[in-house]
Design the sequence.
């Protein structure tokens, strides 16, 4: 009977900004789901998004109080994630939460405790795990294409510097940007890093240093069994969003590169040239955003384990904290 | 006022098969459009598609008689295209017609006459012009990246043989398969071919020869100014759908290659290997199907010229007919 | 005993021009060979090359009369090839002859008759068969990587137009340029073409048309079993020497592309760009020239069959003649 | 007058092993050079190489005492480099010395002092600087293609583990293998690293750990201005010799990849696959070995500054020592 009439999964969404608009649109094209509420302090934005997708504007309490709501999408500003997740957990809703859960590990742990107590599933939006190329690379490691993983190299470079006003509240490059790469590292290594060492520099714009942040970073990590991982980051890549993985194992190497808008190449008297990588995360990870939401819906609907959990969200923050400490002390940091 | 309240473009669609399902789904995600009717002799298929997209099932006459219907999508079987287009033209509807208009040039011309008389816009679904890579290549020719076009080379190879039952009614390889390449050739050359010569062979399966068809073909064409074009076709490419363009001009070469599902590469003791091309037209041209419908909607809504016209549909058939004649006579054929 | 003291193979070389200099230098680095004589009507060129490689300058008769001479390299002007080959055959020397044997099929046949009568081995310098990529592609066809060959596509484009004075005596584009591609076609198809059709245009420079030649060409050919082949040629490729092979078989596709001087790629705000192909035949086929001479030396020294024979040289000319006739008559030509 | 009769540069070579054979053969094809002596304790090897290249076998003293000898090539075992270089310097010979000068920094400094006192030029064989792709990448940084250098990423992975007997005397992975990458790093950064941090693991073979060495390593370094560099090494890459550079600057990214023997690609039902990288340093750096010797000959002949000096040799060792210390202490090391 379940298969004839699959139960509709009903959502309330917190946040009607750029990333909220993406999740709402993806939900609209995900079968067997319904978006009931949009919640945002910016009521104009909330209304516009609600109208577009046939949802209602509501406040937090009302949305969580509706027993029809099965799940929430938390896509509001970072400082609200933990509180909303705790409230949703207490209301018994399944949680899809944008990364990071919080910039403070203490608050993250409070959130995880609430989720654990409420026994609700909580997914953290590490979208890159759902990029078709990265997901395929991970699957091929899992099926043994390169034997035992030995080294992981992650290149992750943004096309340009965000506004300094954003950087001030971002938590810094490691918590805001590298956090995605820390999740990739854990996922690809298949083991927890036990130590890391980080360098950070300000090479792109001196204004970044003035707000106490870095714009260029390199991290190395090792696991208990001696596997090694390197991450390089920059806030500037004139050629677009540079997102590549390289994994070396006992039997070979797997790489996943950038995607381009077209396959057109021009050969002329100066060079053979092709497209730059897709511009930024909205373009590069459009498929990934769709796939992560579909994965959440499927797991929650079928009461299966989530492919990314609140614990994963916590561990990425632990690594980011360690990187901050390494940068501050100039020493490697045990995890 | 038009811009504040853009007029909704309302459709009736003929055909609820595989390609009809694609167009209906694309219409559903195209802003400012509405699908009113699905028409198909297979009433189960019509009903299923209608339910999915909030349309009604109707007959041809009823659909065309509804004054709310602005435009039709003709995605039914090839032998019905011309009659439906004529009826739609008489009813004053804008026409989006799947290729080919008809396998008989005489009927094509009758259709074009009716369309001309009715002064309705008619678009023929040469989807490949809307593939992001092919469209970008064409735009770069137009902006002068390679100077004057001199030679065009089109590789167009299907992953596998269709059923023999389909081949029997397909009109033959040149009318069914090469027709897309003939359109590409005209579009890229920027001049009409004035002569062509064609070879066809049966190399994939002797059953193809038994129904009087070929499965492997090579065509060369020239234009009045001496530009040259080559097309190669096969009904079998074990590695997937091979769709590539190569254009040589006085200042350089432009190429557009295949697309892959991922960018993953494996380097191991045997080779460095990557993904095969996307499997077939549904995968490769998914973006193109979306873009061609959007282009039709935009042109019709804004009363602008269509980017592909019924005349283009006719000319591709003229070239296909010439290729058939060349194959039969063993001689080059003037066009 | 032979293996302990391998017999030295001693050469006389006719021709001290550009290609002669290449062969002489390659001979110098081929073990178990010695260059005894350089023969050239340009005595300064002959002397310079002879001094460089420790050879003597001589006339044709003297060189052929020396019983120490085992083999000759014919790298003089095309119109002297046949006579020199006949003389060398009568003198019992093994022959390495640059392509073409002659522009006249009648004289080619006279030459082949003399060679046959003298029972000497005669090699024709189709260097491209020895390009590492092309040779590897051919070997992989032979070992069955793509099953039965069905279609061959040859792209062969020069970086720029030779002097008109050269074109006047070249025999025309098909005999001078396409001849290499005709040899590639026969080699890759593994069957003789039985018919061809050719288009030729003058698109690069009207001066070419004034001397009755073409600068742009497309050929299609078929074999008795229905295999198809396409060749495209241009005398202009602003991006360098474009030399690519593509072979389709029942089980897959093999391609061999251009080579570059470096693997450097630049990604910047405009594109991702890499090297153009190597400039022209001296750069692209440097390895091939070395390898063909080594293959000749090895086969003659070990009395093994030659990998390319005078018959191959003849057949390429037969195809070139057919292409000329097709161009002149506007009809396909049986071979 | 110098240009009409360029002075011949005459060499004595120490070492007749694998790398010695390469240098001797390259010298043989370098114009205006002559190899007078081969010196090796293995007199059979010395004799064979001497016969092959028309040189004489001699002892160290005799070779250095001959006033005709202008320059020496030191290609003997590592532990003899410093003494031979000191002796050659005292004899007033120009020195081409294989890397490393010595495993002990103290002995390196003694050698540099002797060279300085004797005012002879000393070149250290960092062959990779002369790889066509790496040299072109460096030249493009120098001409400003990517603006100011910000980050350097060096991937350097051997195809397989050397014998444990070799590892025992090699000085360890950082001194034996990473030393090349340390030189690349200095060359590409255009600034001296002021600190580094190193991880090393034994992942390939436990026998490596038993002799106190590592087989897998990751290093990060920074310069005074904050530029960052990462090196990753492994003694095992099943797919061949992996040698890649990636340099990020303010205006773009330059990369240099591996080279392959051919450009052949196979597309079949499983994948699109091409050649593995060239197997090891003899294949990959054949051009580089030729070019470095030519650069040495040209600089010494024309009394120009050497492109790589003994100081460069020393600095690479300083970095290797720092990496060893970092690995031993688990701390970053100031340089």
Sequence:
């Amino acid at each position: 009977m379940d298969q004839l009439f699959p139960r509709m999964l009903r959502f309330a969404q917190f946040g009607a900004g750029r990333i909220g608009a993406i999740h709402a649109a993806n939900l609209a094209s995900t079968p067997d789901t319904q978006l009931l509420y949009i919640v945002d302090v910016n009521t104009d934005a909330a209304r516009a998004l609600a109208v577009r997708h046939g949802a209602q504007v509501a406040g937090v309490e009302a949305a969580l109080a509706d027993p029809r709501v099965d799940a929430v999408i938390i896509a509001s500003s970072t400082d609200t994630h933990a509180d909303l997740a705790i409230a949703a957990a207490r209301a018994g809703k399944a949680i899809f939460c944008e990364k990071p859960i919080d910039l403070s590990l203490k608050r993250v742990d409070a959130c995880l405790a609430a989720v654990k107590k409420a026994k609700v599933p909580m997914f953290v939006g590490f979208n890159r795990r759902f990029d078709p190329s990265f997901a395929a690379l991970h699957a091929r490691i899992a099926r043994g294409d390169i034997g035992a993983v030995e080294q992981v190299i992650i290149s992750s470079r943004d096309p340009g510097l965000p506004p300094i006003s954003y950087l001030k509240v971002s938590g810094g490059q490691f918590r805001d940007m590298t956090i995605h790469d820390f999740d990739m590292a854990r996922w690809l290594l298949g083991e927890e890093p036990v130590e890391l060492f980080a360098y950070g520099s300000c090479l792109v714009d001196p204004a970044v240093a003035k707000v106490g942040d870095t714009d260029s970073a390199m991290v190395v990590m090792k696991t208990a069994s001696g596997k090694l991982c390197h991450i390089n980051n920059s806030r500037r890549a004139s050629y677009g969003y540079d997102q590549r993985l390289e994994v070396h194992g006992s039997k070979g190497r797997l790489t996943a590169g950038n995607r381009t808008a077209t396959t057109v190449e021009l050969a002329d008297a100066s060079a053979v040239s092709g497209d730059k990588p897709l511009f930024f995360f909205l373009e590069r990870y459009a498929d990934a955003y769709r796939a992560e939401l579909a994965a959440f819906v499927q797991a929650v609907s079928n009461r299966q384990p989530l492919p990314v959990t609140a614990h994963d969200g916590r561990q990425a923050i632990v690594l980011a904290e360690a990187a901050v400490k390494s940068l501050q002390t100039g020493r490697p940091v045990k995890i």
